């Protein structure tokens, strides 16, 4: 019997789910349902769609198999020489059949396999109705969902993000028992759903999938989140045109608003213009975090209008007046609180002598002291960086050091503020406002604002040199300090965001062309911390560098690192390492047959791999003109100066012709030890030149 196909719909009806947890897990639900199907031997490769609304998760398959097809499985047993005695099955032979649930006398048969006669059996399994499997599939699927936190309710054995009310499974006319799911989650299993809560709390019967979708449509539930998003964006665009404003769509906020509404409607409201005196970031953050409103702008300046997305299924604009009044009242209270916090903060001193005692009472990390201790460590790093990179600055080393130290004394003052306590994401930003209020220089204010830059992959970098060094000081201390107490990221776990800090260090150094050496400079800075294996931090940063550089070929990156290691493992300078990688990649991309080209130099590397040190070759021991020609080519290369690393790489690979002639004309392992060593010394010199770029063996 073949497998027929029928549409399948599964709805998990729950209490309203928290948006962020729902969004984080929703991206995995189709894969997890497929895994549950696979675990139950259901071969489904059709179109599976997932939907969500605030109180429901829905899976819809257009062509789900009605049966698992009948199967015929062959089993091969032991050879007859092992399974038979006196023309009778011995215990070994009998066990082969009994394990398969067969009668040995009735099932006995043999076949030839690998030129041996062995016991043989064929098992036939009948077709299985997938409707009978859906209970177990759905139970496994629900258990696999991980929303971070889950709820327990009543005496229900299982936990879920929110209590489950009903499981609606519609599979043509197939009766589907969900007894295991009902017992596990204490829910009903009706072919029914609920419409928008503002319209009715009752169940509405849905005998078919068509009835289900029509019921939701008539009941003001837009099931597809993409359609809800389209509706919101279209209405925002209309409001922009009506009121002459611009809305900066925050993708995260938009996604969250879509998740908390079943029937969204965008509305335009106003707040008192007096609140525009607040820093823009305070106003927009308050609207976003507390109320999930979109801020509006006019000519790039914050406007006293906002957009709220209502979930009320109303039809006429005047019906929303009450909703707008309520939202405007709540926002006024929120912004009034923000004004109070901000005014209080402006009255507080930012000077180090006032800030330091408070920071000393805030622990940074066990084993690493307080935030005051962190600032003092950052200042030591800042002095080192100011001295090292003074030639890159447009001001003297003394002025740069003074500004860096002052910036670090001010950098964490806003952590003590009421606004940052309410909105932690505004740390740094608020520090710049407070510094401006206390008449600090504009470049220091900018540095305070950008001290945590970049805050994410691809996010903006510090815009000034002072900002860059301040951010480097803070991030390098976090890396060194946390590694010194064993807080090293493992696997996907990185609770202290050290990968992000490391990416920031690397991106800043590359952008400003700051020659930071992951061996020498880390050793110098590591003296300010408890002793630990600095190679762990170096390898961590090198691994992140391959990510930052978007390495195409892992072998190419490895060859560059191996070249550094072979030359003593000291020259792990970030910018130079990047230049080597890009120059080598550019060269190989231009070569038609890079493998053939590289193979010649791999031969050189393999011949000399066991040589630790060699003297210069003696030209008097050359026996063939090819030796002299190769040596002269090497000397010319060594004497040359190259404006760009790419030019040197071209010159190195130009040695291919004299090398091929050398290998053709002479025997490396000459019977005469002196000649043999002389030839190997010549190849060793060439290999060392290549190692200054990469270890060719790794390509």
From TrEMBL:
Family affiliation: Belongs to the class-II aminoacyl-tRNA synthetase family.
Protein's GO biological process: glycyl-tRNA aminoacylation
Gene Ontology molecular function: ATP binding; glycine-tRNA ligase activity
Underlying gene: glyS
Enzyme Commission number(s): 6.1.1.14
Organism domain of life: Bacteria
Protein's name in the database: Glycine--tRNA ligase beta subunit
GO cellular component, one term: cytosol
């Amino acid at each position: 019997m073949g497998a027929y196909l029928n549409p399948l719909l599964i709805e998990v009806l729950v209490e309203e789910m928290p948006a962020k947890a729902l969004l984080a897990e929703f991206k995995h639900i189709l894969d997890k349902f497929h895994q549950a199907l696979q675990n139950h031997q259901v071969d489904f490769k059709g179109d599976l769609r997932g939907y969500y609304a605030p109180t429901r998760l829905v899976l819809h398959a257009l062509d789900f198999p009605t049966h698992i097809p009948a199967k015929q499985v062959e089993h091969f047993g032991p050879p007859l020489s092992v399974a038979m005695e006196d023309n009778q099955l011995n215990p070994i032979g009998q066990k082969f059949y009994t394990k398969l649930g067969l009668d040995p006398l009735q099932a006995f048969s043999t076949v030839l396999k690998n030129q041996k006669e062995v016991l043989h059996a064929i098992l036939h399994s009948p077709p299985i109705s997938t409707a009978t499997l859906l209970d177990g599939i759905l139970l496994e699927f629900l258990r696999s969902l991980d929303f971070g936190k889950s709820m327990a309710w009543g005496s229900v054995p299982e936990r879920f993000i929110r209590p489950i009310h009903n499981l609606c499974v519609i599979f043509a006319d197939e009766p589907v028992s969900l007894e295991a799911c009902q017992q596990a989650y204490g829910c009903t299993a009706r072919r029914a759903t609920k419409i928008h809560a503002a319209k009715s709390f009752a169940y509405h019967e849905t005998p078919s999938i068509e009835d289900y979708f029509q019921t939701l449509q008539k009941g003001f539930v837009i099931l597809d989140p993409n359609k809800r998003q389209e509706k919101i964006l279209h209405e925002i665009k209309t409001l922009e045109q009506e009121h002459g404003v611009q809305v900066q769509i925050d993708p995260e906020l938009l996604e969250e608003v879509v998740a908390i509404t079943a029937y969204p409607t965008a509305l335009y409201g106003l707040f008192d213009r007096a609140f525009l005196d607040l820093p823009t970031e305070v106003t927009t953050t308050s609207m976003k975090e507390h109320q999930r409103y979109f801020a509006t702008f006019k000519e790039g300046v914050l406007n006293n209008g906002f957009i709220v997305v209502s979930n009320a299924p109303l039809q006429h604009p005047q019906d929303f007046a009450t909703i707008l009044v309520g939202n405007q009242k709540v926002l006024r209270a929120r912004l009034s609180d923000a004004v109070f916090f901000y005014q209080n903060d402006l009255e507080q001193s930012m000077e180090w002598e006032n800030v330091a005692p408070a920071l000393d009472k805030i622990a940074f990390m066990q084993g690493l002291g307080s935030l005051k201790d962190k600032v003092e460590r950052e200042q030591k790093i800042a002095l080192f960086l100011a001295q090292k990179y003074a030639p890159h600055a447009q001001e003297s080393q003394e002025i740069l050091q003074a500004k860096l130290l002052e910036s670090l004394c001010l950098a964490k003052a806003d952590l003590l503020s009421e606004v940052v306590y309410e909105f932690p994401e505004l740390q740094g930003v608020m520090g710049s406002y407070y510094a401006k209020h206390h008449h600090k220089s504009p470049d220091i204010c900018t540095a305070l604002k950008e001290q945590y830059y970049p805050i994410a992959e691809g996010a903006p970098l510090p815009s000034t040199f002072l900002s860059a060094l301040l951010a480097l000081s803070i991030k390098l201390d976090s890396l060194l300090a946390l590694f010194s107490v064993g807080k090293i990221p493992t696997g996907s776990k990185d609770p202290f965001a050290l990968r992000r800090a490391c990416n920031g260090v690397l991106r800043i150094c590359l952008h400003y062309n700051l020659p930071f050496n992951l061996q020498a400079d880390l050793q110098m800075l590591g003296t300010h911390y408890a002793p630990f294996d600095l190679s762990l931090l170096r390898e961590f940063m090198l691994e992140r560098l391959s990510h930052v550089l978007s390495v195409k070929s892992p072998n190419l990156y490895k060859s560059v690192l191996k070249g550094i290691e072979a030359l003593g493992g000291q020259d792990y300078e970030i910018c130079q390492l990047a230049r080597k990688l890009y120059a080598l990649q550019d060269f190989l991309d231009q070569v038609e047959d890079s493998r053939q080209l590289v193979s010649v130099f791999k031969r050189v590397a393999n011949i000399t791999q066991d040589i630790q040190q060699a003297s210069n070759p003696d030209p008097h021991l050359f026996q063939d003109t090819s030796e002299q020609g190769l040596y002269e080519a090497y000397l010319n290369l060594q004497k040359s100066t190259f404006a760009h690393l790419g030019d040197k790489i071209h010159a190195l690979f130009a040695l291919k012709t004299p090398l091929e002639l050398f290998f053709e004309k002479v025997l490396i392992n000459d019977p005469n030890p002196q000649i043999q060593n002389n030839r190997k010394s010549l190849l060793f010199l060439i290999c060392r030149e290549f190692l200054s770029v990469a270890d060719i063996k790794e390509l």
